[in-house]
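Shipment paperwork, digital attachment
Item: protein structure file
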Amino acid sequence: SLVSNLPDVLDWMSDLCIELWIDQEGFRGIRPKFCLAGYTSPSSPTPSLVDTLTHGVALFRPTRHQGAIYHHGTLDSAPVLRRLTLAGSEDKDYIS
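Attachment content:
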């Protein structure tokens, strides 16, 4: 794992990358990917399993810089986050 302080119970996250599916009315879609880049432990000196799972913070970083251009007008809707999936696997959407 690239994250040296990742607790053993969260080892399954070591290679985790997520993908956001964002578009504006079904057009101009982008799918930025984010991979685990860090972990911040709970503030207690010896966190319990529950503290680790509920109060620790996983930090994700984009795999590359990606911009998008969307229309901005009174009749244009805002871009929408449609799906959140594991990168490389479209089997499950973690939003719906």
